[in-house]
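Sorry, any thoughts here?
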Amino acid sequence: QNLHALPANQSHELKIDLKDNRETASAKYSSFYVGTEFDEFHLAIGGYSGDAGDSMEYHNDMKLSAKDQDYDVYSGDCANKYIVGWWYYSCNHANLNGLYLNG
């Protein structure tokens, strides 16, 4: 639902800060665009810098999959497998909506 808060049809910068116990990492994207509901919240992302790794590139150019909308290329259904919506390609390299599991 928070995707609606972004101004439509505009590119933005995105910064992701990750923390796990005492370790931190970040990823910054100079170009982050999410389409409207009419194009299934299509993701366009690029211009990576940081030390977290460019895991979002794997999901670039994907539509937002949800439990009732499967847009990934996986033969199964990533959104139901991982219980959350995301811009899955063939499941995930990055899933900031996913469950955080210790170990």
